[in-house]
Amino acid sequence: MLVLHGSNGSPFVARVRMQAYAKGLEIELRPAALGTPEFQRLNPIGKMPVLEHDGFVLPESLVICEYLEDAFPTPSLLGALPQERAQVRLICRTVDLYCSGLLLLLWAAADPRLKLNIAEEREKLDKGLNALESFLSADGFAASDMLTLADCVLAPWLFYGAMLTKQGDDALTRRPKLARYMEFAGHQELVRKIWGEMDESYRAFMTKWRAQQQAASAT
Ligand SMILES: N[C@@H](CCC(=O)N[C@@H](CS)C(=O)NCC(=O)O)C(=O)O
Question: Which segments constitute the GST C-terminal domain (predicted)?
Answer without folding.
Answer: 81-205
